[in-house]
Design a protein that fits this description.
Layout lengths: L1 H39 L5 H24 L7 H6 L2 H32 L17 H27 L4 E2 L5 E2 L4
Antiparallel strand pairs: 1-2
């Protein structure tokens, strides 16, 4: 069972990383084309701005989910490092719980916006506007799953006085304290 979860985790991470690479390339390419079109060719390229903006939204959401997977989301590490063990544990646990609450909130409202904008299409390109809100659902679902994994590891490490982590390849690393 654990091997299946590792395979799924590896596939999700790889898919997200590949998607991020292509969306960043697309974002830079469309922004570059917009500058070339506007200033050198004197052309209007409204689709370039829309695609670049769409790529930014997807990059932020998918990149944020990957950051949570690697336990690298925004927090103040310098404060937690100077605190005693039990206080650090409670603070980290609260941090993870807040991330889950945030992810649930983002997922819920992204889903509502996807449904609300299902019949709304962009003016210049004619694609459905709910594409802007779909990454929120993906971000929320992936973030919730990975934060629960982080919480389980945090509790396991606290109970067993160890330092079990999951590296970028999905392997578990153990450091017994």
């Amino acid at each position: 069972m654990l091997n299946i979860l590792k395979i799924i985790d590896k596939a999700i991470v790889k898919l997200c990383e590949v998607f991020l690479v292509f969306s960043i390339i697309a974002m830079v390419g469309f922004a570059f084309w917009q500058v070339v079109g506007r200033f050198l060719l004197k052309l209007s390229t409204p689709y370039a701005e829309e695609f670049a903006r769409l790529a930014i939204v997807w990059c932020i959401m998918i990149g944020g989910a990957l950051a949570v997977r690697k336990n690298e989301h925004i927090r103040v590490d310098s404060l937690t490092r100077i605190l005693p063990g039990p206080v650090r544990f409670i603070l980290e646990l609260c941090s993870h719980v807040l991330v889950v609450i945030f992810a649930v909130y983002i997922t819920r409202y992204s889903y509502a916006y996807v449904l609300a904008t299902a019949e709304d299409f962009t003016t210049s390109l004619g694609y459905c506007r709910n594409v802007f809100f779909m990454p929120g659902i993906i971000f929320g679902a992936v973030t919730i799953v990975y934060t629960v994994v982080n919480i389980v590891l945090l509790i396991y490490n606290q109970v067993h006085h160890s330092n079990v982590t999951i590296d970028n390849t999905g392997r578990m690393n153990t450091d017994v304290a």
